[in-house]
């Protein structure tokens, strides 16, 4: 019941401003990592949300910072569970994410 209520709140917030949902998720994941920083799955989720936020924002510097945070999360997670190959795939994707983000939002790739 509690999860369903939280889902409805997030859904309503998303319809108003999709970026707020990512910010809220990042905040909650950071709280979870303060409780247990060794949870590789929480680090993975945090990296995913930072990647999502980076793709969603049209601001190049904010996007780059989000992608950098995602890379940091994935690298730490990889260190916690070196046999989980999804971390490597996520690292490859996010390492080129800024190129896709700029194309998506209409920025010139040559200007940085």
TrEMBL record:
Any Gene Ontology CC annotation: mitochondrial outer membrane translocase complex
Membrane topology field:
Single-pass membrane protein
Q: What stretch or stretches form a coiled coil here?
A: none
Localization per record: Mitochondrion outer membrane
User: What biological process terms from GO does the record include?
Assistant: protein insertion into mitochondrial outer membrane; protein transport
Q: What is this protein called?
A: Uncharacterized protein
Q: What does this protein do?
A: Central component of the receptor complex responsible for the recognition and translocation of cytosolically synthesized mitochondrial preproteins. Together with TOM22 functions as the transit peptide receptor at the surface of the mitochondrion outer membrane and facilitates the movement of preproteins into the translocation pore.
What SUPFAM superfamilies does the database record attribute to this sequence? TPR-like
- Cite the entry's keywords alphabetically: Membrane, Mitochondrion, Mitochondrion outer membrane, Protein transport, Transmembrane, Transmembrane helix, Transport
Q: Does the keyword rRNA processing apply?
A: no
What the record says about family reads: Belongs to the Tom20 family.
Pfam families reported for this sequence: TOM20_plant
Q: Which InterPro entries match?
A: TOM20_imprt_rcpt, TPR-like_helical_dom_sf
